Every structure is written in C-alpha cells, then in structure tokens.
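Write out structure tokens for Amino acid permease/ SLC12A domain-containing protein.
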Amino acid sequence: MQACSTTLCVLLLLIMFVSAIPHVDYNRWVVQEDWKYTDLSSAIEAIPYAMWFYLGVEELPLASEETIEPAKNVPRGLLMCISTLTVLSFGTAVFSSLISPGAAAMADVSAPLVTSFQTLYGTGATTTFFKWMTVIALCSSPNSYVFFMGQLLFAIARDGYYPKFLAYEHPRRGTPVGAVLFGTISCVLIAVILHYAIGDDDLGSVLINLTLLGALISYIFQLLSFVYLRYRQPNRPRPYRSPFGLAGAFVGLLLCGISIFAILYTSVTDTIFLASIVVTVLVFVAGSMYFFRVVLPKIQNNTLGSPVTTKDMNENLLSARSQVLISTGA
C-alpha cells in the first residue's frame, strides 16, 4: 500500500510537469507580475517553507531493521530519496509558478496540485479523476511519518531512555503500539491547543515552523555527533562513508543555523509565530527535566534497563538501529 501510494504520488507530479510544459509563460507570470528581489525580509521568511519540501528524509535509516542488507540498501535508499525530492521539489516550484493562475494566486489555494490540474485540464472528468488520485497519493505522507515516529520512540524507549510503555510491541505483528499511540495523541493535542490559542488562519504555518524547529535541532545534534565520531574514532569500521565528509557536515551545520535564524526572525516579525518557539521550548524543557531527574541517575547507577550495559553502550556508542543511522552519515 505504501509503495503504491508513493509511486502514484510521484506519477501525478510527473504528469503535471509534462502537461505544464506547453503552458509555461515566463513573461506573463514572472515579468508582468513584477517579480523583483526587493525585500530580504520576505526571502528570510520563505526559508522554512522551502525546507518543508525535504523534511523527513533523514528518518529513512530508522527502517534499517525492516530492510534487507541495510548497510548496502539504506544508503542507496537515502541517495534515491534525496535525488527524487530535489527533482520533484524544483519541478513543483517552477511549474506551479509559471502556469495560470501564477505563484501569487497559488499562495492562497489549499490544494496547489489540484489547481494546476484544473488549469491544464479544466474542471471536467479528467481533473476529478486526478483529484481523487491525489487524495489516495497523499496517504504516503502521513503513513511514513507515523511509521517513523513509532520506530524512533520505540528505539529510544527500548534502550531505556524513555518510559517502558513506549517500547510495547504488538505480540504478533511487532507494531510499536505504545510509541505510535503516544506520539499520535501528543501531536493531536498540540494541534488542538494551538487551534484554540491562535486560530486557524496561521495554524498550518505555525505547525510547519514548530516541526522544522524540532527537526533542525535534531539535525544539529546528529551533525555534531558525526563530527565527534570522525575526530575521536577515525578508524572505526563504517559500512558507508559520507561522500561529503566533514566539509559537508560543517555546511549542514551552517544551513541549520541559517534556517533556525529564519524561523526565529519570522517569530519576531510576526508574534503569532512565537507559538512555535514556545511549544518547542516547553517540549525540550520537559525532556531535559525527565533526562536529568530520571534517566541520568539510572545511567550513573547502571540500572538503565537497556539490552546492553552502560559500559558496553559507551563502547559501542549506539544500538544496531542507531548505528545504521550514524553509518549513513559517517
């Protein structure tokens, strides 16, 4: 099901790209729309939405335990995902902007792909067919996020850092039931609270900034871990080495810093976006308090409850699942 919906999603985008080529009008939708770079502030505010194209690709290594020959196939999958996302993101941005009704109008529609099909095929049966196919294709996104959310929470809980109920698996199917339920309920609660706190007009944008901020902080820690391992353990066996090396890690850190600055800048220029900062801070404060009050004493007393001892964990650095994550970047 997941493979089918993902394939359908890619096919629909490719159909839109090819169909849009005869309708591209740079003069009408760029020159006459007076698209000139005049405002650095607007460019900075747009950075988080550009990042939204690529959010989530870093979670692919969490599927290592379900992957055949993960040391070989996970890096391949990552490269394919990055390549696919790059092509599709640029294609979507370019073709959606250069056909009717143009980028300015696209900014106000709730379904840009459907609007593009309406431009290309009218409002008849063909567009209706593509509309329903788009609904089916969109299932690939929430399914992926829920799957990886469960895998991540389960892996951390299994190593003893989160409460044990998050490591509960379905006895027959092996689904991380505790992690999926807890993560889903938490996300829904945050969305509902923000709905009543700030309303619906900016809710989507605030949630995007909230998600990106948490992801960027995670990226920074991963990149710092990569740099640390390269310097402290340069001869450590690695099934896969990053083609970008330390230079790529430092560039990644720079980009993360720029993106976080963009989110903070947006929050300063429009106070409604401060909600994303507040929620992020509260989550990290709660997590830090839990770590220092509950987890750290267990580590110090060697009672963490991990499948391996604290000493072995320090020597091995990470569990098998997390090791694949690092190896794909290191």
